[in-house]
Amino acid sequence: MSTCATASRELAEPLAGTAATARTWLLVEQPGPWGADALTSSHLSPAVGRALARAVEGTGVRVALIRRPGRHADCHEPAVQRVFAAHTAPGRSWIRTTALADPAALPELDFAALGAGEHGGLWEAYEGDPLALVCTNGKRDRCCALLGRPLAAELAASGGTEVWEVTHIGGHRFAPTLFVLPYGYAYGRATAHAVKDALEAARGGRVRIADCRGRSAWDRPGQAADLAVRALTGEEGADALDVTACEGAAPRWTVTVTHTDGRAWRVEVAQGVSAPPRPESCGKALGTPARMDVVAVTPLGER
Q1: At CA 114, angle to CA 228 and CA 85, rounded to 5?
Q2: In angstroms, rounded to a whole number, what is the distance separating the alpha carbons of residues 301 and 57?
Q3: Counting runs of H as helices and runs of E as strands, what totals does the chain give?
Q4: 3-state secondary structure at position 141
Q5: SS3 state of residue 230
Q6: Alpha-carbon separation of residue 283 from 8, 143, 165, 172, 189 (angstroms)
Q7: CB of 186 within 8 A of CB of 169?
Q8: How far apart, in whole angstroms, are the C-alpha atoms of residue 153 and residue 139?
Q9: Poorest-confidence range of 59-63, 260-264, 273-277?
């Protein structure tokens, strides 16, 4: 086992409440190498990358580059590039896709609408297998390359899975990391067996909560609260639970989680620090990353 994986497991930091926050993802295929800031340091035009970063600011949309697993020669632009837009809110999850000859028009999309879950008939509905997006950006964090690329390759070789490598999605210390669309649940310290289970669950509209970091549609307290209620009740339905309120501010929040059957729970979440100190990214100095601790889960009855 690599030193990255060994350190991650020995420190045993909780995973819940550590997923990147994005209600909607825009994923742009870009083969070849990625730099630390992939939008402006890859074969994607830096001008397009900067325009995308500006266009999505404050909209709830997050942009990432993707590529197929395998060797990544320093190649130039492909003839067409696959693009996905995916919304992850409960009960409203969707994926739209297209192939573009030139991504220069992407910054002109209505990102405010996409962030709100309104695709307006954009592109085509994606109806294939759930997407497994494994972080492999070694220029951002070497553990993501050392652990993520073998995982992505193994998943791709197993067949029957729509696997892509993806740029920065946070939580490098939990490498290998990934998220699964359409529901947007992220996972850390992933193994091929566990990911296959998570993908099989997603095919059936369910969530595998083992090794789960949270659903990207919610901020970190909401992610932790959702997973706590799932652990308490055994609820697996991906769209059965929703975070309908989050009150307070660091270091304490009160989160309301509701079920489609009318039940509800009040979840108390506290922000703590991870101890002993550990690097927040592979090879970085020691620090004390924030963690989300669920203090109490109280049933509220039907609403």
Answers
A1: 80
A2: 38
A3: 6, 16
A4: coil
A5: helix
A6: 12, 9, 22, 10, 17
A7: yes
A8: 19
A9: 273-277
CB atoms closer than 10 angstroms to residue 107: 18
Chain centroid to CA 70: how far? 21
* Confidence (pTM): 0.91
- Tokens standing for 225? 């609260």
Task: Label the pairing between strands 162-166 and 185-187.
Answer: unpaired
Structural contact between residues 61 and 151, judged by C-beta atoms closer than 8 angstroms? no
> pLDDT tens-digit profile of 206-264?
999 999 999 999 999 999 999 999 999 999 999 999 999 999 999 999 999 999 999 99
Rounded Cα–Cα distance for residues 43 and 34 (Å): 8
DSSP state of 58: T
C-alpha span between 19 and 232 (Å, rounded)? 20
Q: In whole angstroms, what separates CA 136 from the centre of its chain?
A: 13
